[in-house]
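Task 17 of the worksheet. Students: predict the tertiary structure of the chain below and write it out as structure tokens. Keep your answer in the requested format; marks are given for formatting as well as content.
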Amino acid sequence: MDMEALMSQAQSLQNKIAAAQEALGQMQVRGIGGNGNAVVTMTGKYDVVSVVIQPGALEGGAVTVSQYVFDAYKDAKEKADALIEKTMNEVTGTLE
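Model answer:
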């Protein structure tokens, strides 16, 4: 393979990766904590879009609410990680 073809292939891959990263910024995942008492929504680029706490969760006090939110964040991050891996594998899966 000549250098020009290799550079063209690299540029094409770079463009596909950039497009995938932009798409990830538009995708959203939801993490749930405390059996639905807290819900964190984030993008595929880890930007938190919203945090929703059910009114009944407040009865448990600040420590409980904090744990619910933390658990919801962890769940959302795990889902974002999986989404990122899937999306990027679709783009780079052809690499050997």
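Marker's comment: The first strand starts at residue 28 and ends at 33. The radius of gyration is 19 Å.
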